[in-house]
Specification:
By secondary structure, the chain is α/β, with parallel strands linked by helices. Helices cover 27% and strands 24% of the residues. The longest helix is centred in the C-terminal third of the chain and has 16 residues, at 257-272. The structure holds adenosine-5'-triphosphate and alpha-D-ribofuranose.
Length: 289
């Protein structure tokens, strides 16, 4: 495979609401939709839709949600041979979406919490992508393994948590995560001081900002009418990884190809926000031409 994606697989229980309830309040919403999600599985599907050979490294329970998630991964062409079956229930994400396309999410990790360092295998991949709805020590171990074996690593530090970043090649965060990491101005050049070799901040409707070799590159988003931004960051990260593979850069390299990969990732993510759900909203390569 080209890309190993380490991260969560969740069934997304999505309900549309006019507004979110305050504490102690009840609001009525739409019928519930049950959709395949989870930051890791989403990222794997986004990368595979663009033609990369992707393996997903994660865990699901032995319940129907787990089957749904495996089915979605496989139908996108993702290799699921590294997926662990756990006794714990498949991860669930309780998601509300408001008419402006914004979401808020509570994740119940379940089986995602059962992953261990021993489950980590990178095979012959040239890129590792990781995100943080799985145990932090497992992610730290995978990043160390990637650094030691010349595999390019992309870390989507989401949900944000304390983690050493010196083994990371490319750090991807959104504005909230950047604000948590940096006191004040969200400039990706300031993230480089934390250890990664390059950094990207996704800026929602404003696109993304990339720092490579201390230079700042600003990439505007395509103007769209968003209907559901859930999973836009995962679409971005998956597209970035798939494009880095296609760029043919040598293992372990981080360079100018990151900026053109980020341009394509912005394009993919902006399409994803015009459609509902996460995995079902990701475009294929043919839709980009
Ligand atoms: P989410 O948590 O909703 O999945 P995120 O907070 O991780 O997303 P964002 O920075 O909001 O990440 O969005 C990721 C990318 O998606 C942006 O870099 C941009 O390319 C695209 N995007 C998001 N919102 C919009 C929008 N309203 N219009 C166009 N593109 C958008
Ligand atoms: O990034 C979006 C994802 O976050 C959803 O699919 C949900 O499962 C949560 O993990």
């Amino acid at each position: 495979v080209d890309v190993v994606v380490l991260g969560s697989a969740n069934a997304d229980l999505v309900v549309e609401v006019d507004r979110r309830p305050a504490a102690g309040e009840t609001v009525l919403g739409s019928d519930t939709q049950v959709l395949p999600g989870g930051k890791g599985a989403n990222t794997a599907v986004a990368a595979a839709r663009l033609g990369a050979a992707v393996a997903f490294l994660g865990a699901v329970g032995g319940d129907p949600y787990g089957e749904m998630l495996l089915g979605s991964l496989r139908s996108a062409g993702v290799d699921t041979s590294l997926v662990r079956r756990s006794d714990r229930p498949t991860g669930l994400a309780y998601i509300t979406v408001t008419p402006d396309g914004e979401n808020s999410i509570v994740v119940s990790p379940g089986a995602n919490s059962a992953l261990t360092r021993d489950d980590v295998e990178l095979g012959d991949a040239s890129v590792l992508v990781a995100s943080l709805e799985v145990p932090v020590p497992v992610v730290a171990h995978a990043l160390e393994l990637a650094a030691a074996t010349g595999v390019r690593s992309v870390l989507n530090l989401s949900p944000v948590a304390e983690l050493g970043l010196s083994t990371v090649d490319i750090l991807v965060v959104n504005q909230h995560e950047a604000a948590w990491l940096l006191d004040g101005r969200a400039d990706p050049r300031r993230l480089l001081a934390l250890g990664p070799r390059a950094a990207v901040i996704t800026l929602g409707a404003k696109g993304a900002a990339v720092a490579v070799d201390d230079e700042l590159h600003e990439i505007p988003a395509h103007p769209v009418t968003p209907v559901d931004s859930t999973g836009a960051g995962d679409a971005f990260t998956g597209a970035l990884a798939a494009t880095l593979v296609g760029s043919g850069a040598s293992r372990g390299a981080v360079g100018a190809d990151l900026v053109s990969a980020a341009r394509r990732a912005v394009r993919v993510a902006s399409i994803s926000v015009t459609r509902r759900g996460t995995q079902p909203s990701y475009p294929s390569a043919s839709e980009l031409s």
